[in-house]
Amino acid sequence: MPEPINQIYSIPAPYRRMENMHILFWLLKDIGWCMLWKPLGLVMIFPTLIIAIVITWRTRDMKAELAHNLAIVFWISANSYWMISEFAGFDTVRIWGSLTGKHLALIPFLTGLLVLLYYYLVQKPREKQAGQLATQ
Predict the structure, then answer these.
(1) Is residue 2 part of a domain?
(2) Dihedral sign, Cα of residue 83, residue 89, residue 91, residue 96
(3) What whole-number distance in Å separates Cα of residue 33 and Cα of residue 86?
(4) N or C: which end of the chain has fewer CB within 10 A?
């Protein structure tokens, strides 16, 4: 069943607090990366990624939210891998041709992009079409 166009999306307070903590953890992770504070950057991967997965799970019934939250999970994964590759020193190691260790982060980045492309090019038009058919 398509989601109504005028549907209101409200976030329960405990979920909103979790999302706000998620932003804090994500910022701490990236500050650790930027400042080369390896322990902070590495430790913050776990709460950042875990909360992103929990948020994705909780929004799984809303296709638009699921797609965007899945993309965020893949983004955080790619971002975290890239940080690890720099911290461990294999970011510039050639893997194949001109591709280096950090370029492997493209796999989760592109996976997130594919999820969003599928949503916008396939799922959303189907929902719109089903909504139009339902109103006829």
Answers:
(1) no
(2) negative
(3) 9
(4) C
Residues of the domain holding 24: 13-128
Residue 63 lies in a domain: yes
Q: What is the pTM of this model?
A: 0.86
Decide if 109 contacts 71 (C-beta within 8 A). no
Please, are residues 116 and 67 in contact by the beta-carbon 8 Å criterion? Answer: yes
3-class SS shares of the chain: helix, strand, coil, % to 5: 75, 5, 20
Give 136's pLDDT tier (boundaries 50, 70, 90).
low
State mean pLDDT over 20-47.
96
Residue of 14, 27, 24 whose CA lies nearest to 55: 14
CB atoms within 10 A of CB 97: 7
- The secondary structure of residue 20, as a DSSP letter, is H
Phi then psi for residue 25, to 5 deg, are -60, -40
Give the chain's domain count. Answer: 1
pLDDT tops 80 at residue 102: yes
* 68 lies in some domain: yes
Residue 84 resides in a domain? yes
